[in-house]
Specification:
With about 180 residues, the protein is an alpha/beta fold. The protein has helices at about 5-20, 30-45, 90-95, 140-145, 160-170, and strands at about 25-30, 55-60, 100-105, 150-155. Helix content is about 35%, strand content about 10%. A four-stranded mixed beta sheet has the order 1-3-2-4, sandwiched between helices. It starts with a helix and ends in an 11-residue tail after the last helix.
C-alpha cells in the first residue's frame, strides 16, 4: 500500500529536517536512493518482488563499502577513500532490493562505546541531544530512532549495535558470525 518512492521520499525529508540536530549521516545518497526506489516500485508493479526488504530504505554504517561512495570509518585519515566495490553486506542488500539511502556516522574506526569520537562530530541522541548515542554504530541507532530510515546496518563486536539501539530506544540485534 505504501510505495518505495513514497517511503524513500519520506525518509529523505526526515533526514533533511533532523540532520542539523542529530548528525546521524555522513553521506546521504538522495539521487541514487530515489532511482533505486523508482526501480523497486517498477519491479514490484511487474510482480518481480524480491522479498521483505524490496524497496525499503536502509542506511549503512560508514564502515561498509558501497561502490562509488566514500567510506571513511568516521576518520579524516580515510577522507579520500572511495569504494571500488560493494561490501558483501551492501551487495546482499542490493540483491534483496533494499534502497540504500546513505552512510552513517560512527565512533572512529568502530573503536569506542560512546559514539562521540568522529571526524564528523558526534551523532546525537534523538531523545536528548545532550546525551550520547552509544557506539560504535551511533548513527545507526540515531537514524532509526529518528525515522530517517526504516532499518540500519551496524557492526557489533562488544556491543556496538546493542548499545546505541538501547540508548536510542530501538531494537538492535548482534548478527551471528557467518550470517
Amino acid at each position: 500500500e505504501l510505495s518505495p518512492v513514497e517511503m524513500t521520499d519520506a525518509c529523505l525529508a526526515r533526514i533533511e529536517a533532523a540532520e542539523p540536530r542529530v548528525n546521524a549521516f555522513i553521506t546521504v545518497l538522495s539521487d541514487a536512493a530515489r532511482a533505486d526506489a523508482n526501480r523497486a516500485a517498477d519491479e514490484i508493479a511487474r510482480g518481480d518482488y524480491r522479498g521483505p526488504l524490496h524497496g525499503i530504505p536502509v542506511a549503512l554504517k560508514d564502515i561498509f563499502d558501497v561502490r562509488g561512495v566514500k567510506t571513511t570509518a568516521a576518520s579524516k585519515i580515510l577522507a579520500g577513500n572511495v569504494a571500488t566495490a560493494d561490501s558483501d553486506a551492501a551487495e546482499r542488500l542490493g540483491l534483496a532490493g533494499a534502497v540504500v539511502i546513505g552512510k552513517l556516522n560512527m565512533h572512529e574506526f568502530a573503536y569506542g562505546a560512546t559514539g562521540v569520537d568522529s571526524d564528523f562530530g558526534p551523532a546525537r541522541n534523538p531523545w536528548d541531544p545532550g546525551r550520547v548515542t552509544g557506539g560504535s554504530s551511533s548513527g545507526s541507532g540515531a537514524s532509526v530512532a529518528t525515522g530517517e530510515c526504516a532499518a540500519a546496518l551496524g557492526t557489533d563486536t562488544g556491543g556496538s549495535i546493542r548499545i546505541p539501539a538501547s540508548l536510542c530506544g530501538v531494537v538492535g540485534m548482534k548478527p551471528t558470525f557467518g550470517r
